[in-house]
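Project standup — Tuesday

K.O.: blocked on the structure for the chain from last sprint. Re-posting the sequence here as requested.
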Amino acid sequence: MEIIKSSSNKFIKEIKGLNNKKIRNKKGYYFIEGIRIVEDAIKSNEVIEYILYSDKLFQTKDGEKLFSIIKDKYINYQIEHNLFKEISDTETPQGIIAVMKIKKYNLEYFQRENLFLIFLDRIQDPGNMGTIIRSADALGADGIIISKGSVDIYNPKVVRSTMGSLFHIPIIQVNDSIETILKFKDEGVRILATTLEKARYCYDIDLTKNILLIIGNEGNGIREKLLNISDENIVIPMEGDSESLNASIASSIIMYEVLRQKKISRK
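H.V.: unblocked you, prediction finished:
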């Protein structure tokens, strides 16, 4: 097989372009990088368009094993490692990148009873977004809805920080937050907003059935117009001197409380 050596190669240009949100949306693709997340994509039966790899893959733990899986199952191309580093989004590239098809969901996907949904209102930090997606996956959320103004979930930094959870939980991005939330409210889903104002402790509220939990922006919290249509405000009890928690930590604690209550209710 001929090794790709030129930065003008169409595959190299395409991956560089996929760093841009507009191009990702236009083409319907994004990319993942690293042995573990590519393995997870394969196990999750994600649609992989093609794979680029360098000789570094064979010098990395489990690299040869992964190559034995991809070499006949997926379209793949070898490139020089110096060129690979040009398109890599990591400091220490492992020598493998996969171009993925963006999955599309709609709100009708959530038309069932006893939902546990997370609504993210303008979460902008890639690390926070990735951590929330991982926590939602681990703690049993049925899906995540993301408002306009949030960081793109296919941003390479977000993708990397999800550690593969991006493949395991349905995520929908919406333009009209109020319309979306009211739709679920009309269907009997209880809307809970995380805020310090006029709030009850999360463990004092029944979180076992049909809820949508709104998590607000890191600096400004939840927009007032969303607070106005919520059914109840909830807060995490704290005893230290800190006034607030990081958005991803706060959401993870409340998601765990949802899981804890559900476990108890099943006994």
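K.O.: great, moving the ticket to review. The mean pLDDT is 95. The domain at 107-266 is CATH 3.40.1280.10 (Alpha/beta knot).
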